[in-house]
Specification:
The complex is a heterodimer.
Chain A (H helix, E strand, L loop, with lengths): L1 E6 L10 H10 L5 E4 L6 E2 L3 H7 L6 E6 L4 H13 L4
Helix pairs in contact in A: 1-3
Chain B lengths: L3 E3 L1 E4 L2 E8 L16 H26 L1 H14 L2 H12 L4 H17 L4 H22 L13 E5 L4 H4 L7 E6 L7 H9 L3 E3 L12 E5 L4 E4 L3 H19 L15 E6 L5 H6 L4 E6 L13 H12 L6 E5 L27 H6 L1 H18 L2 E6 L5 H13 L6 E5 L2 H5 L1 H4 L6 E3 L1 H9 L17 H16 L4 E3 L7 H10 L3 E4 L4 H9 L3 H13 L3 H11 L3 H4 L2
Parallel strand pairs in B: 3-4, 4-5, 5-6, 9-10, 9-16, 10-11, 11-12, 12-13, 13-14, 14-15, 15-16
Antiparallel strand pairs in B: 1-8, 2-6, 3-7, 7-8
Helix pairs in contact in B: 1-2, 1-3, 1-4, 1-5, 3-4, 4-5, 8-19, 10-12, 17-20, 18-19, 18-20, 20-21
Classes of the chains: A alpha+beta, B alpha/beta.
Chain lengths: 87, 561
């Protein structure tokens, strides 16, 4: 079980355009991945509808969790993707 | 079914082809017990969603650019694993594939709508679109939107939304016909932008059987069903000539064949009309109908609010003339914030400038807003009063404008025969005239514009009207007063030449009419226009006047006008 915390940079909210990019990347991974706010029930990171419904905004902290071979590398890639994303 | 339909012609030209219906609604699937097993139902739903997703991706590649990104995101939604889980759960509980899809996508749409994010609210329409497409597949009914066109066709719809037309192959659309909508609806604007003939507000359009051959005239608003072949070829040949003439007319200033300049200006109602006017090569605005922005207002608009609207219009015409008509309320367009009494005959009551004389503070606010807007945008502001009857009214308006600090030309509209008859004297208290041919006809013939039974008398070709226009132009010339026409008369290419022959110095019309008038003028000399005008005035009826003018304007047939 791997876990990373990401602070969404300015202009990057999962309630907006970057959601599709994030879900697309998450969907390419073979293992299950979830995304959520710390302490709250997470949602499937491969579901664009669930991720948009989460509504995480720029500046918010989110937690990514994955389980399986290469989970740590996958989460590091997703974190980097969000931190370098542009609106 | 009738053999013809009539609506409002909003984009000129002739289009012909089989009717293709645009489907705008898919029925809600009934909440009935499923006939198949839960597994079969949920597999059917998954297959339909996959087909919709594949179709969206194909359209994304075709669209390119920003639309591609939107459509790809939409395809991801159709393939969403959480959605599939929700649908499977509902099928498990006994729903049909269609009902389960309908409910699950509806729930997600509601969730996004409640999010408060503009972006997510925009995705609600995407979800509804996926839902309609998927349910249509499951129910075996046509998918919503515009079917793929395989041949030149006439699109027939209730009305069209921007989403319907984003991917439309405009090359295969010969005309639009919609049951609803008006001159400013999306269909009308799109049609004019692409030069596609269109008739909107056409009752019965949605009852036309798909495949019926339609001949659409976007100028006069007629739609003929299954017309005779000889009639079709004649109409298309004439239209081809017209299109060639318009394509060759360019966007330069208006002038006759021998170089006599006649400014071609646009009639507009607000900022939304500016782009079309500029694109048509209008040399400025000849009639800005300021009251149209405030028809639904209970309170008088503030100066700030008016500045915002006027500046948005004037910004499109820096260094160019913008003729603004001050608020023109009356029987046919009451402004709730202006003082109206009950009148037995409102067309002849307190209307136009007369209302402003009773409520001078409303006029003062408007003039101040106009002055500010002109100063900040660099447009050349000309201000004119509607419905001026005599010199006392013209002088009163002039004094109000001076008090408001307006430095540019101050003019009057000539819409009442008394003003036309005394144009020479009126010219001593007005810097310019603008003939409102529609009202001038109404008052000359005592024929109400809104009464169909007297429509025959509402024709601008009536020789008596031509006489009054000639008199106005002569009176104007005595003082070197510019004299324009801003009614429907100016938009008729043949009549426009006659007006120039009568001595009119500028023509203002809806932007779509400018190209036709420009080419008609460019093909004839001032002498020809004058000879046509003289012949028209000698004629004994409106129809005879038109025929007489045509014999002197020899190039009109070649232009297809």
């Amino acid at each position: 079980m791997a876990e990373v915390t990401v602070i969404l940079p300015p202009g990057v909210g999962l309630h907006a355009r970057p959601a599709a990019m994030f879900v697309k990347a998450a969907s390419e991974a073979s293992m299950p991945i979830t995304v959520g706010r710390p302490g709250e029930a997470p949602v499937d990171a491969k579901s664009i509808l669930a991720v948009m419904g989460l509504g995480a905004k720029a500046g918010e902290e989110i937690v990514l969790v994955a389980d399986g071979d290469g989970a740590e590398g996958t989460l590091a890639d997703l974190k980097a993707l969000l931190e370098t994303a542009e609106e | 079914m009738a053999s013809s339909l009539t609506g409002v012609g909003v984009s000129p030209g002739v289009g012909y082809g089989p009717a293709v219906a645009v489907i705008d609604a898919v029925p809600e699937p009934p909440d009935l017990p499923a006939t198949g097993s839960a597994e079969q139902e949920s597999e059917a739903a998954a297959a339909a969603l996959e087909a919709v997703a594949t179709d969206l991706e194909a359209r994304a590649v075709k669209a390119g650019g920003e639309a591609q990104e939107v459509l790809e995101a939409q395809a991801m939604m159709a393939r969403d694993p959480s959605l599939a889980t929700q649908i499977a759960g509902k099928c498990e509980a006994g729903s049909t594939a269609a009902r389960a899809t309908y409910e699950a996508l509806g729930a997600y749409a509601d969730m996004l709508a409640a999010s408060g994010s503009d972006y997510l609210a925009g995705r609600v329409a995407d979800l509804h679109d996926i839902r309609a497409r998927t349910v249509a597949r499951l129910l075996g009914v046509p998918e919503p939107g515009i079917p793929d066109l395989s041949e030149p066709s006439v699109l027939v719809a209730r009305d069209l939304a921007p989403a319907d037309t984003a991917l439309l192959n405009k090359d295969l659309v010969t005309a639009f016909v919609t049951a609803e909508g008006g001159p400013t609806s999306h269909t009308s604007i799109l049609a004019r932008n692409y030069g596609i003939p269109a008739v909107v507000g056409c009752p019965g359009a949605t009852d036309v059987e798909p495949g019926t051959l339609l001949l659409v005239d976007g100028a006069n608003g007629t739609v003929e069903l299954n017309p005779a072949e000889v009639h079709v070829s004649a109409a298309l040949a004439k239209d081809a000539k017209r299109r060639a003439a318009l394509a060759g007319s360019g966007t330069g200033p208006g002038r006759t064949a021998d170089g006599h300049a006649v400014a071609l200006l646009a009639n507009i109602g607000g900022p939304e009309d500016v782009d079309a006017a500029v694109a048509a090569g209008a040399e400025g605005v000849g009639l800005f109908r300021t009251e149209l922005s405030f028809l639904d207002r209970a309170d008088a608009p503030s100066e700030t609010e008016q500045v915002a609207i006027y500046s948005a219009v004037m910004a499109g015409f820096e260094g160019k003339k913008v003729v603004v008509r001050t608020l023109d309320a009356g029987a046919d367009k009451p402004l709730p914030f202006m003082p109206f009494g009950e009148e037995p005959n409102p067309a002849m009551g307190v209307r136009g400038l007369r209302i402003c004389m009773q409520a001078p503070e409303i006029l003062a606010t408007q003039l101040a807003a106009l002055r500010t807007s002109a100063a900040s945008t660099g447009a050349e502001l000309w201000v004119m009063a509607p419905m001026v009857a005599d010199m006392a009214e013209a002088a009163w308006f002039r004094s109000q404008c001076h008090r408001a600090g307006l430095a540019g030309p101050i003019g009057v509209m000539v819409e009442i025969p008394a003003a036309a008859l005394r144009a020479k004297q009126l010219g001593t208290v007005a810097d310019f005239f603008s003939i409102g041919s529609n009202d001038l006809t109404q008052y000359t013939f005592a024929a109400d514009r809104q009464v169909g039974a007297v429509a025959r008398l509402q024709e601008a070709w009536q020789p008596a009207l031509l006489d009054l226009i000639a008199l106005t132009a002569e009176g104007a010339a005595a003082n070197d007063t510019p004299c324009g026409v801003c009614g429907e008369a100016a938009a008729d290419p043949l009549l426009a030449c006659v007006l120039v022959g009568l001595g009119v110095t500028s023509l203002s019309m809806s932007p779509g009419a400018i190209a036709g008038v420009r080419s008609a003028l460019a093909a004839h000399s001032l002498d020809q226009c004058q000879a046509a005008a003289e012949a028209a005035r000698e004629a004994v009826s409106a129809a005879a006047a038109r025929e007489a003018a045509r014999t002197y304007l020899s190039e009109m047939d070649a232009l297809g006008l």
